[in-house]
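Title: Comparing notes on inverse folding

I've been comparing how different people in this forum approach sequence design from structure. To keep things fair, I'm posting one structure and asking everyone to reply with a full sequence. Here's the target:
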């Protein structure tokens, strides 16, 4: 939903790194703290059983958020968009993609896949609840009205089902950066043929949603001081910030429309053949040019990935300087580091590697490295295009 930077790795799922932002631990602690008392009262059991049920429920809740993000990730991969990482943080999750969507169909499919994942979680919860108590008692079990004897499983379902329904409904609000906002952007984009118009429409709705959330949070804070009001105000800030960023990016994209990657790339990049021994690569490339990293290509010039000087140095110092530099590439997905030379410059602005690595590799249709687009080159191109400052 909303983007965060930096995370602690938890696990890998289908080759996708799942990590958590440090704020996730705050959310974990708060949920366990808030739920443990009510779970103890509802179960009428020992503190140990109530606490274990609480912890298991909270972890399952976060697992449901991962399912939501996996929906986005798998849909993106199906469309040929590289996905290497999913991060959870205080207000939800974010799927890191190698590029932004390029067609209304891609945008619609990727955006809708997350809510579909959440819907699947809701249906699983309903099915398990139905199997345990039957259809006529299911609502009573979810409402915790005391007519159904609760077990740890039923109590977990009574939390997971409504929470995921709430997440599903909230995410479908047609306001950027929520999934509903991205769906709205895709529909406007398809109807008008103008991505920027779709972005502006969804982002304006996002700004409106931020105002509503902020007003509701302020009202709650003044009428009944507590964590809920603060929570809504923080959420309003993040939604508004993302919506404004989308508006600024759309304005930039419109101004640089027509400028291609090939127009700004360095056409004579320093590249290391993959068969070069590490010791030779260190002396003849990294030390000679003072480079912290360099692109590595195969025998026909196809981009394979990047190699960092520190790792090549460690390999050489460890007595393995004979190893080919192609065997000491970074673990980054090569697809996330490259872009077609015929793509518009605006596509470069959406790539995570531009901020993380400071550059993007420009390749032709066969994957042959044709140039490198650095942050400085993008900045100079934007300065040239912009005759007047953005509002």
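Reply #1:
Here's my take.
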């Amino acid at each position: 939903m909303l983007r965060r930077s930096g995370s602690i790795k938890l696990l890998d799922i289908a080759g996708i790194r799942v990590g958590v932002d440090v704020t996730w631990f705050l959310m974990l602690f708060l949920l366990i703290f808030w739920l443990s008392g009510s779970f103890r009262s509802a179960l009428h059991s020992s503190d140990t059983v109530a606490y274990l049920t609480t912890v298991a429920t909270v972890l399952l809740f976060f697992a449901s958020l991962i399912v939501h993000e996996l929906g986005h990730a798998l849909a993106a991969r199906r469309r040929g968009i590289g996905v290497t990482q999913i991060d959870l943080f205080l207000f939800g999750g974010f799927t890191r993609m190698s590029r932004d969507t390029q067609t209304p169909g891609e945008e619609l499919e990727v955006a809708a896949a997350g809510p579909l994942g959440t819907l699947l979680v809701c249906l699983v919860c309903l099915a398990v609840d139905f199997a345990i108590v039957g259809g006529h008692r299911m609502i009573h079990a979810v409402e915790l009205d005391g007519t159904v004897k609760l077990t740890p499983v039923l109590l977990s379902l009574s939390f997971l089902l409504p929470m995921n329904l709430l997440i599903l409904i909230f995410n479908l609000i047609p306001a950027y950066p929520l999934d509903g906002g991205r769906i709205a952007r895709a529909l406007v984009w398809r109807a008008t043929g103008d991505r920027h118009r779709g972005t502006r429409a969804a982002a304006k709705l996002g700004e409106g949603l931020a105002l509503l959330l902020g007003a509701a949070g302020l009202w709650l804070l003044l009428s009944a001081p507590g964590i809920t009001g603060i929570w809504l105000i923080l959420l309003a800030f993040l939604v508004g910030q993302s919506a404004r960023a989308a508006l600024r990016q759309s304005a930039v994209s419109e101004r640089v429309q027509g400028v291609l990657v090939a127009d700004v790339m360095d056409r004579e990049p320093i590249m290391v053949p993959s068969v070069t021994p590490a010791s030779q690569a260190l002396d003849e490339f990294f030390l000679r040019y003072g480079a912290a990293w360099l692109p590595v290509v195969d025998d026909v010039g196809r981009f394979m990935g990047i190699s960092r000087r520190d790792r090549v140095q460690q390999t050489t110092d460890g007595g393995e300087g004979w190893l080919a530099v192609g065997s000491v590439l970074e673990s980054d997905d090569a697809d996330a580091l490259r872009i077609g030379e015929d793509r518009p410059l605006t596509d470069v602005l959406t790539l995570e590697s531009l901020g993380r690595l400071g550059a993007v590799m420009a390749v032709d249709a066969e994957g042959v490295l044709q140039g490198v687009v650095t942050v400085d080159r993008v900045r100079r191109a934007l300065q040239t295009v912009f005759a007047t400052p953005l509002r």
